[in-house]
Amino acid sequence: MSSVFRSKTARITLSNLSPGPNSQHAQKRLGRGQGSGRGGTSGRGHKGQKARAGNGKPKAGFEGGQTPITKRFPKKGFVNPNRKVYAPVNLDRIQYWIDQGRLQSSPENPITARELLLSGCIHNVHDGIKLLGDNAPYLKTPIHITPSRASQSAIKAVESIGGSVFCQYYNPLALRDCVKSREDRISAAPTRRTDILWYTNWHNRGYLSPEAIAKNPKVEERWKELSKQLLSFKDQTFDTKGIKKM
Amino acid sequence: MFSALRKSVAGSSQAICRRRMATIAPTLDQSKPTTSQSKLAIRKVYVTMSSFTGKSNSAKKAVALDPTVFDHPIRRDILHLCVVHHLDSLRQGTASTKTRAEVAGSRRKIRPQKGTGRARLGDRQSPMLRGGGVAFGPKPRDFSTKLNRKVIQMGMRVALTMKLREQRLGVLQRINWWSHKTATLNSRLSGLGWRTGTLFVTGESEVPARMRLASKNLRGIECRTVADLVVYDIVKWRRVILDLAAVDALERALGKGLLGISDSERVVSDVTHSCVEEVEPSA
């Protein structure tokens, strides 16, 4: 009986509790007498720049006059504030998740960033999801997915089985609303020229391309008008009279 | 937050997830018939049901307890962590001293730098001088620390197990008293040998009024709700008497959920059964 056997004979009270061995380390206290081993000069030796109060060096990273490591190499490049990092997800991984029953998709409920995150298929959505086509032959079930981007091989593999890919523009707020399943706000349309050109292009399966508007079962009314307006530049004519040809 | 959502997303699927993590104990699959190999050997621990009437005429009953809560391996270091964390949180932290900047006084240099033959001195508030400020003295600060929630939960389990093994844990049907008069409770507790060092813990939302009134003026007796119970209390008090509602609440909060003891299974009438040992809270 477990209650008969006792490992220690004394009762546990407030007076005989102690921390686990080696779980606590005594503090190093400088300048408290010779017996401590760190009295007197407190481990600094005698005089000199390093013995003085405040940091011993003129400044951080100073190497005594030798060219410091931070100055030996030239600066290079710039950091792009518009840089986007997409979380990659491959087709074989999605198929494995479907086989395990951790992911389901249908035209009415396509796979979004939320489903991928919560099922553990991806660990962080970053700036969006990009569908990639590694091990495409392993994909057997038709999937319906709305990533931020998709590679050409992934699009081809998904559509050859009968699935669908519609790449949707998610700005940081829209991505957050998608992941948190918040539907009271409108997701913003792309504003940058490069984004507009990308998402109105059926080659990329952009959600604002006319073919996507026609095919997508989850198309919003707003997108139809957006698609029309964003693509109106293609039919625009210019008054070329009086402009010299170069 | 996401871990709870993940479980609900995974649980709603039709297919059976075959992945198993080594750190999670296997759960019994209710749909399949259990063979002798797949049954987990979980044996409940028991404690004799106490009552305010003492060793009564009626037949003895035993209370079944969840072993994951009341039969946990003893970890003294976890108890130490929980007790120290609790005591740190109680510190008022109001010790305060004045630094040389805060001591009242002028910035005037007391005597000339050179020529006096004595040591050089600046203003009167220097820590070297009598009446000056304190160098690195205490300032009001918060001594509370963070302790992982699961460490505190383990501490509770260890403390309850420890009390049961030391025969200092009791279970009552209900912690209520028939009278508001302190003298009545005093004499009954003296008769039971529970007069000093007993902590009553009730699982109800508040301590029953008559018990509260009767015990309020008794030194060495305290009544608490299960929500206010901490590891420090369980270690400090000599005797811990729970009621059935408290046992339920503690098992719900601390148990691993493998053995859900229902209300009908809780009190066992057949005390002569071999697995039940007469364990009563001793004096």
From TrEMBL, chain A:
Which keywords label this protein? Ribonucleoprotein, Ribosomal protein
What SUPFAM superfamilies does the record tag this protein with?
A: Ribosomal proteins L15p and L18e
Classification via InterPro entries: Ribosomal_uL15, Ribosomal_uL15/eL18, Ribosomal_uL15/eL18_sf, Ribosomal_uL15_bac-type
One example of a Gene Ontology biological process annotation: translation
Composition bias, Polar residues: 1-25
Which stretches of sequence are listed as region Disordered?
1-76
Q: Give residue spans, biased composition: Gly residues.
A: 32-43
User: Recorded GO terms, molecular function?
Assistant: structural constituent of ribosome
Family of this protein = Belongs to the universal ribosomal protein uL15 family.
Q: What is this protein called?
A: Ribosomal protein L15
Q: What is the lineage of its organism?
A: Eukaryota, Fungi, Dikarya, Basidiomycota, Agaricomycotina
Automatic annotation (TrEMBL), chain B:
Q: Which UniProt keywords apply?
A: Ribonucleoprotein, Ribosomal protein
Q: Name one Pfam family in it.
A: Ribosomal_L4
Q: Which family does it belong to?
A: Belongs to the universal ribosomal protein uL4 family.
- What InterPro entries does UniProt report for this protein, alphabetically? Ribosomal_uL4, Ribosomal_uL4-like, Ribosomal_uL4_dom_sf
Which GO CC terms are listed, alphabetically?
ribonucleoprotein complex; ribosome
Q: Which organism is it from?
A: Suillus fuscotomentosus
Q: Its domain of life?
A: Eukaryota
- List GO BP terms, alphabetically: translation
- Asked whether the keyword ATP-binding is assigned, the reply is no
In residue numbers, the region (Disordered) covers: 95-135
What SUPFAM superfamilies has UniProt attached to this entry? Ribosomal protein L4
Tell me what this protein is called: Large ribosomal subunit protein uL4m
What molecular function does GO assign, one term?
A: structural constituent of ribosome
Lineage runs: Eukaryota, Fungi, Dikarya, Basidiomycota, Agaricomycotina
